[in-house]
Design a protein that fits this description.
1 helix, 119 residues, mainly alpha
Length: 119
């Protein structure tokens, strides 16, 4: 009877260990499946975030490019304005110089005329 009881206890213990092992295997498989799902979800989320960052950087790059283009146009306009003003100032200076030379020539001519008449 004792031997039979030991056999049953042994069989019960072996059965219990087998069930616990099967439960542990199922739990590990469930954890693996859950981890795989979470990794896939994380990968998808990271890819979406990366795409959003890329779009944001593209928008910022375009904004900078647009701003630089506007600044370039503004600088070109300012340089052209300054060139026109410098050309106008040179033209005025030339006219002033020509006018001054003509005045001096007239005065010199007038002096010569007076000196000739005095002689």
């Amino acid at each position: 009877e004792l031997a039979g009881r030991l056999e049953r206890d042994k069989a019960d213990a072996v059965g219990k260990v087998e069930r616990e092992r099967e439960d542990a295997v199922k739990e590990v498989e469930a954890l693996r499946a859950r981890m795989a799902g979470e990794m896939a979800e994380l990968g998808t989320r990271l890819e979406k975030e990366r795409e959003e960052v890329v779009r944001k950087l593209e928008r910022e790059k375009e904004a900078v490019r647009s701003r630089l283009e506007m600044e370039k146009v503004g600088l070109e306009t300012m340089v052209e304005k300054e060139r026109i003003e410098a050309a106008a100032a040179m033209d005025v200076s030339r006219r002033d110089a020509t006018s001054l030379l003509e005045k001096e020539r007239r005065e010199a001519g007038d002096r010569l005329e007076r000196e000739l008449q005095e002689l």
